[in-house]
Automatic annotation (TrEMBL), chain A:
UniProt function note: Part of the binding-protein-dependent transport system for D-xylose. Probably responsible for the translocation of the substrate across the membrane.
Location(s), subcellular: Cell membrane
Protein's UniProt name: Xylose transport system permease protein XylH
Any GO molecular function: transmembrane transporter activity
Organism: Streptomyces himastatinicus ATCC 53653
Keywords for this protein: Cell inner membrane, Cell membrane, Membrane, Sugar transport, Transmembrane, Transmembrane helix, Transport
The keyword Membrane appears for this protein: yes
Domain of life: Bacteria
Transmembrane regions listed in the UniProt entry: 38-61, 67-85, 116-139, 146-163, 200-219, 240-263, 283-316, 328-348
Membrane-related topology note: Multi-pass membrane protein
Gene Ontology annotations for the cellular component aspect, listed alphabetically: plasma membrane
From TrEMBL, chain B:
Lineage: superkingdom: Bacteria
Organism in which the protein naturally occurs: Streptomyces himastatinicus ATCC 53653
SUPFAM superfamilies hit by this protein: P-loop containing nucleoside triphosphate hydrolases (SSF52540)
Domain ABC transporter: 15-255
Key words of the record: ATP-binding, Nucleotide-binding
Full protein name: Sugar ABC transporter, ATP-binding protein
Cited InterPro entries: AAA+_ATPase, ABC_carbohydrate_import_ATPase, ABC_transporter-like_ATP-bd, ABC_transporter-like_CS, P-loop_NTPase
């Protein structure tokens, strides 16, 4: 801020001498407390310390790589789901949409004997169309997104099972590993890099790229401003000329894009796809976003927070295995984390508001 | 019903409504409203709840389209399709309760829908520092000194929020400022502050439409008063044609109020 501006500011505040500081920034501690990610970061640190003590194997590099991979499979979806929630909407169809995307890709390539990239391309178009359908129906009807996407969730689940049975006559797709383009597609969606002693799954790269992209969009683009606005106060946003409908449809298509990436990963990692997979994952994505500080009512949250939420999921999921407790306890931990992180967020925000 | 007075101001009005009407299905919400908005003047629209004020505001703001009559912006017959279109024609509307997004920082609210960007194509990004500084400067001009334009606008007082919305409209070059009940939820002191900014906007050359059910506030700043009653226009008076007492009585329903006085008398 220039000197001219500063003197300008002090002139105009003559009536309010006590407040002569122009554009002073809020103290660092308060600003940190005001971040939506705070609860998630504190929670992640606690979970990390906990499993470091409880499980010896947890602190090895190879375990870290496994944890990151588990985190990324949820995180790739949690990030756009968080954006959608900031935009004030839910999507319950995300879990099965990932499976649909993989199934379409696989079955199209197999039935048409086409290059697997052609199948992946068709799958991308169809998946984006489903995302568009969710968003379009929402903005045209103004029904709650909970109901609309619950509908698409069930429809997609039925289609996944029904079409797979109809076409493959089993509950899974045929192998496409010997088809043209498979090696290169696997390279893109399901390979791993080796950095020193650490093996890094490519999904982690996709995940980080999505976090960076989503954060950029949210904080530094016009679209990001619109996302916060349509989630925070839809009518106010509309009144100042924000394209509310376009923003919401765009958010659903963003979720669809991530579902496509996740689906292609599933397909090219395991070669065949089970038609019943994915049910229940939609809640994991939402949980990660909420742990990461997204408000259920919209208008507040962050992509980084959702990513940290997904990381908590990964640590808990694998940490329980390393501690040899049996996976039965996983849901318990996840539920406890959800409550604790949300309570912490609530408490911090309340404190911040009181002292403001 | 008086229609004189429109000729006292020369030049083409910024907005001219002629016998504007609106129906929602079979329900007639508004009919026969005629009013002009001139630069540097405040036109007050007064009416009780359900008189058709919000329908009128929605037509002028581009949220709804009129079914009857003519709507001219700077002499050109128009039918506004969206709030964006209204803004592009220089009509900015500040709503009573939905003026801002409470959880968003002040500067993001200030520039919402008209963000400053730098860079090209996919790298076009918000010019955050410019927007922060502009927000601070523009608010200071309105006499609001915020230490931190990054604070959520929900932490400001109701009056300050209204002022931010007014400052925003002025900054973005609005020619017509439509204010929906700006003082309805405010205390006496804060109402005064808001009315000062309404007057400031008028002095800056804007045509102001002030919608209110408070004749005292209207009379303080208004140049012309349009009275609405049950969806129709019940009167239109220039300030020199009507006294505050008259305005208050007409606004309150005239004979109805007298009857009420009689009934309540002890």
């Amino acid at each position: 801020m220039s000197a001219a501006d500063t003197s300008d500011a002090t002139d105009a505040t003559e009536t309010d001498k006590a407040d002569a500081r122009p554009v002073a920034r809020t103290p660092l501690l308060r600003r940190l407390a005001g971040r939506p990610e705070l609860g998630a970061v504190v929670g992640a640190a606690a979970v990390f310390v906990f499993f470091s003590i409880a499980a010896d194997a947890f602190l090895q590099w190879s375990s870290f790589s496994t944890v990151l991979y588990a985190s990324s499979t949820i995180g790739i979806m949690a990030v756009p789901v968080a954006l959608l929630m900031i935009g004030g909407e839910f999507d319950l169809s995300t879990g099965v949409l990932v499976t649909s995307s993989a199934l379409i890709s696989s079955m199209f390539s197999y039935q048409m004997t086409a290059n697997v990239w052609v199948g992946a391309g068709v799958s991308l178009l169809v998946t984006l169309a489903i995302g568009f359908f969710n968003g379009y129906l929402l903005v045209r009807t103004n029904l709650p997104s909970f109901i609309i996407t619950l509908g698409t969730f069930l429809i997609l689940q039925g289609c996944n099972l029904g079409f797979t049975k109809l076409i493959s006559e089993t509950v899974s797709t045929k192998t496409i590993a010997d088809m043209e383009g498979f090696p290169s597609a696997r390279q893109v969606f399901a390979s791993h890099l080796t950095i020193g002693d650490v093996e890094l799954q490519i999904t982690v790269v996709w995940w980080f790229a999505l976090i960076a992209l989503a954060t950029w969009i949210l904080l530094r683009t016009r679209a990001g401003n619109w996302i916060f606005a349509v989630g925070g106060a839809k009518e106010a946003a509309r009144a100042v000329g924000v394209p509310v409908n376009g923003t919401k449809i765009g958010l659903y298509m963003g979720v669809a894009l991530a579902a496509w990436i996740s689906g292609q990963h599933l397909l090219f990692k395991y070669d065949t796809v089970q038609s019943g997979e994915g049910v229940g994952n939609e809640l994991l994505y939402i949980i990660a976003a909420v742990i990461g500080g997204c408000l259920l009512t919209g208008g507040y949250g962050s992509a980084v927070g959702a990513a940290v939420g997904a990381f908590i999921f990964g640590m808990t999921n694998k940490g329980i295995v390393y501690a040899q407790w049996g996976a039965d306890w996983f849901k318990f931990f996840l539920g406890a984390m959800l409550l604790l992180a949300t309570l912490l967020n609530w408490w911090v925000r309340k404190r911040a508001e009181e002292s403001a | 019903m008086t229609t004189s007075g429109t000729t006292t101001t020369s030049g083409t009005p910024l907005i001219a409504l002629r016998d504007i009407g609106k129906r929602y299905g079979n329900v007639k919400a508004l009919g026969g409203v005629t009013l002009d908005v001139h630069a540097g003047q405040i036109t007050c629209v007064l009416g009780d709840n359900g008189a058709g004020k919000s329908t009128l505001i929605k037509i002028v703001a581009g949220l709804h389209q009129h079914d009857e009559g003519a709507f001219a912006v700077e002499g050109e017959e128009t039918r506004l399709g969206s709030p964006r279109e209204a803004l592009d024609r220089g009509i900015a509307t500040v709503y009573q309760d939905l003026a801002v997004v409470p959880l968003m920082p002040v500067w993001r609210n200030f520039f919402l829908g008209s963000e400053i960007r730098k860079g090209r194509g996919p790298f076009a990004r918000l010019d955050v520092s410019a927007m922060r500084e502009t927000t601070h400067r523009e608010l200071l001009r309105m006499g609001i000194d915020l230490r931190d334009v990054d604070q959520p606008i929900g932490t400001l007082s109701g009056g300050q929020r209204q002022c931010v919305a007014i400052a925003r409209a002025v900054h973005f070059g609005a020619k017509v400022l439509v204010l929906d009940e700006p003082t309805a939820a405010l205390g006496v002191k804060q109402s005064g502050v808001v009315l000062k900014y309404v007057a400031a906007a008028r002095d800056a050359g804007l045509g102001v439409v002030l919608i209110t059910h408070n004749p005292h506030h209207a009379y303080l700043v208004g140049d012309r008063f349009v009275l609405l009653k049950r969806g129709t226009m019940a009167g239109s008076h220039a300030k020199d044609e009507i006294a505050l007492d008259d305005l208050t009585r007409q606004m309150a329903g005239g004979s109805e109020l007298e009857q009420l006085t009689h009934e309540l008398a002890r």
